[in-house]
Each structure stands twice: as structure tokens, then as C-alpha cells.
Design a protein that fits this description.
Layout (H helix, E strand, L loop, with lengths): L28 H12 L1 H4 L3 H9 L3 H6 L2 H15 L5 H5 L8 H4 L5 H7 L7 E2 L12 E4 L23 E11 L2 H4 L8 E9 H4 L9 E7 L3 E3 L1
Antiparallel strand pairs: 1-3, 2-3, 2-6, 3-4, 4-5
Helix pairs in contact: 1-5
């Protein structure tokens, strides 16, 4: 990752806000609507969760820095709806109020479908004949550069602060959808996924607590034998 959202280990941004008062998921009603619009727009634009994440990463750095969490959601889904020709910029500004065409109308989600899907989880684990290169306890090192190997500037789940760090395999989760491929419509390309444990001193130059450990879920192609 090389975009502004990859903020792990940066100085100067102040304390991390870990939640809303009383751990409420939404601080205002508009945030509920932003969440619902983003989720229910997926059938219209026919995108997946990795595409959604990549859309937020592509927000202009000045906007990403000043937007709140759900402002990022609504800005990203707006970009995706325009890019997917579900909406036009003229419709967003109120200069054009044409009804959606039949192809779009056919993909809308009904209230019944929403109720049926509410609370459902859609796992990204997949059956695969792939041989697992690593097992719990194995020493590994992340690859020396973070970045999508398939698409220049594309989505990846390897954070920059973990590049070149040595850790050990804690868990093997089986094969999972590979986000670097799935975010760009290149197929699910499932591969082994592991939880890797890193000492804090491997990730940070001056860790506040050197004996702390950080766990990351990482795909096999992000790893090398240590």
C-alpha cells in the first residue's frame, strides 16, 4: 500500500479514537443511511467488498484526511455508482432526474431481500487443493515491498509498516479469496491465509512496549521463509 490510508506507525495524527460514546456503532442517523446505501448498492454496481475498500483508498488524500469514517463510505460509493453508470454526475447535482433504466431497476434489492439478508455473514473462505507452504510455528518474513503484483497501484492487504518484518505463523485459516485480485474483477484466486505474529520491535523503531505482539492476517504470497 502506498496511499494515504496506510497510516500505521505514522506520527502527528493524534490519539486514536477507538469508538463512539458507549461504543454505539452510529453517532448519527445519517451514518446509518450511509451504511445502508453502501451495502444495498452492491447489487446495482455488482461490486464486492474488496472493490469497496479500494474505492475508499482512491479518495483524494485531502478528502481522506478530513472526512469522517462514514463520509469516506458515502464518498466512495458515490464514485463507484458513477463509474458503474448507475448514476450520472448530472443526477447527483440535480441537473438530471431521469429514472434508472430497466437493467438497473432489475438489480434493485427489495425490502424482503434486505430482511432475509440482515445479519447474514458471507464467508470468504473457499475450498482449494492448494498446498499450504507454512504451518503454525514456522518463522516467516513479509516480502520486501508492499504493493499489488497484478495491478499497478492496486489494492493489497499487506500494510507498509509490516514490510520486511519477521514473525511466526500462529494460525492457518485455509484458502480465502485473494483481495489483490478480487478488488479488480480478476477473479477470487483463493490462496492460503495465515495469522502471523510479529514482535512490536520488528514493526516499530521505538515501540512503547517492546514485548508487545501484533497479529496480522496475511495471504501466502505476502510471505517468505525466514
Amino acid at each position: 500500500m502506498s496511499r494515504v490510508h496506510d497510516m500505521g506507525g505514522r506520527y502527528g495524527t493524534g490519539p486514536v479514537n477507538t469508538g463512539q460514546p458507549d461504543d454505539a456503532p452510529f453517532a448519527a442517523d445519517w451514518q446509518k443511511r450511509a451504511h445502508a446505501i453502501t451495502t444495498l448498492s452492491m447489487p446495482l454496481g455488482q461490486w464486492n467488498i474488496d472493490m469497496r475498500r479500494h474505492a475508499r483508498e482512491r479518495l483524494a488524500p485531502r478528502d481522506y484526511a478530513r472526512f469522517t469514517y462514514y463520509e469516506k463510505w458515502i464518498a466512495a460509493v458515490t464514485d463507484m455508482l458513477v463509474a458503474g453508470q448507475v448514476l450520472s454526475e448530472a443526477e447527483l447535482t440535480g441537473d438530471d432526474a431521469q429514472p434508472p433504466d430497466e437493467a438497473i431497476r432489475a438489480r434493485k434489492v427489495s425490502p424482503e431481500q434486505v430482511r432475509a439478508a440482515a445479519g447474514k455473514r458471507f464467508p470468504y473462505s473457499r475450498e482449494s487443493d492448494a498446498k499450504f507452504k507454512y504451518a503454525p510455528g514456522d518463522a516467516v518474513r513479509t516480502i520486501p515491498r508492499a504493493g499489488n503484483r497484478l495491478i499497478d497501484g492496486g489494492h493489497t492487504r499487506l500494510p507498509a509498516y509490516a514490510v520486511g518484518a519477521q514473525g511466526r505463523i500462529l494460525l492457518s485459516h485455509g484458502a480465502h479469496v485473494f483481495p489483490d485480485s478480487n478488488a479488480h474483477g480478476l477473479g477470487e484466486a483463493p490462496q492460503p491465509l495465515y495469522t502471523v505474529v510479529f514482535p512490536a520491535c520488528e514493526l516499530w523503531t521505538h515501540p512503547e512496549h517492546p514485548d508487545d505482539e501484533v497479529t496480522l492476517d496475511l495471504w501466502e504470497c505476502y510471505l517468505e521463509p525466514a
